[in-house]
Design a protein that fits this description.
Blueprint (H helix, E strand, L loop, with lengths): L2 H15 L7 H6 L5 H14 L3 H13 L2 H9 L6 H9 L13
């Protein structure tokens, strides 16, 4: 089996099973998925939307400092965002899979 044939089989498996392989943020970013800073800034925007500017400011500060886990903890602990909305917004940037992703 050639490398191209193997790549095609892996791509077809991912399409058929909707499985995801984690390969690092750099790979995801190349196909249009958000990086950690982009995703966390999206979550800061959600905090602002739900009238929680303090959490939004802290998330952005943590992102600037490179403390991505700390930024995520601040988002998860926000009392202003209903739980369902919080989870939905966390997934939102990943809902539309870029067309090129299925070709990997």
């Amino acid at each position: 089996m050639t490398a191209d044939e193997l790549a095609q089989q892996i791509a077809q498996f991912l399409v058929d099973s909707r499985a995801i392989i984690f390969a690092g943020a750099g790979v995801g970013a190349r196909v249009g998925l958000p990086t950690w800073p982009q995703w966390l800034r999206h979550l800061a925007g959600v905090c602002r939307k739900y009238d929680d500017p303090l959490s939004a400011d802290l998330i952005e500060r943590r992102v600037t400092e490179g403390d991505f886990l700390g930024a995520a903890v601040i988002y998860k602990s926000s009392k202003h965002i209903p739980t369902g909305a919080k989870l939905t917004e966390m997934a939102e940037p990943f809902r539309s899979i870029p067309g090129d992703l299925a070709l990997l």
